[in-house]
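Q: How would the C-alpha cells look for this protein?
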Amino acid sequence: MNGAAPSARVDSIRRSLVSLKMPRALEILDATLRRIEQGQIDGIEALDELLGEELSLRENRRIKAALRMARLPVVKTLAGYDFSFQPSLDRNRILALAGLDFIERAEVVHLLGPPGTGKSHIATALAVEAVRAGKAVYFIPLADLIAQLAKAEREGTLREKIRFLTRASLLVVDEIGYLPVTPGGANLFFQLVNARYEKGAMILTSNRGFAEWGEVFGDPVVATALLDRLLHHAVVIQIEGSSYRMREHAGLVPENVRSGAAFNPPPQKRRGRPPVKGKTDLEYG
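A: Here is the predicted structure in C-alpha cell form.
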C-alpha cells in the first residue's frame, strides 16, 4: 500500500473496525492487506477472512460466557469419554442425545449408575453441546438446588427463584441420592419439576434406582409424584460397570463395590420411539 490515498483509506478502515467493535478483524488487517499485495488472495477472499475471523472470535466469546452462566463445574466432551471402559453403554444412543432433540421435546434424560461410571461426564458433555447450539443451560447438584430453593422460600422469593430456574432450555440436576435431602426439600424440588413439566428439558444423574427415591427424598408420596412427571416423557440411560476413577486400583476394592448394585427402573411412558434395550450412562464422577 503505497501513497497517501491508500494509507488514508486503510486508516479509515481501521477506525471503522474500532467503531464496529471488531478487534479480531483489526488485528489481522495488516497481514491480510499484505497477502492481497502479494497476490495470495483477492479482495473478496480478504473480506471473507476478516469477517470469518471476527465471527469465530465472537462465537467463542459467546460460548465461554454461556458456559459460565451454565455454572458447569468443568467442561467435558463426549469425545473425551472412554466408551470402551463401559461396554454396557450404547455409544450410538448417547451420540443421538447429542443431537439435542430431547430438548425440543422437553424430555427428561435419566442417567443412572454406580458412582464413577460416567453419569456426570455425559450430563456435562450434553450440556456443553446444548450451550454450543445456543441453548440456555443451568447445571446444579441436587443438594445445592434444594439449598437455594429453601433459602428463597425463607426470604419470600421462591416464586421468583422457580421462575428463574424454568427459563433454561436445559436444567441439569446432578448427584441425586448422594446426600440426604433436607426436610421439606422434596416438596421444593417437586414444585420446580412441576413448573418445568412438559415445558423444559432436564438431565438427572443418580446412583440410586427409582424404587429407592422414596428413601432418597424422605417422602414416598412426593417421590411418587416426582416420578410421575419425570418419567412421563423420559429417556432412561442405565450403566452397569466399574468406577472409571478407581480403575487403577480395582484390585484393592471388592467386586461387589466395584460393580455396584443393578438398577431396575420401572417402565415409563414416553413419546417417540421406544427406548433401545440395554443400558447407558457415563461420567467420571
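Residues 4-69 form one domain.

The first strand starts at residue 108 and ends at 112.

Upvote if useful.
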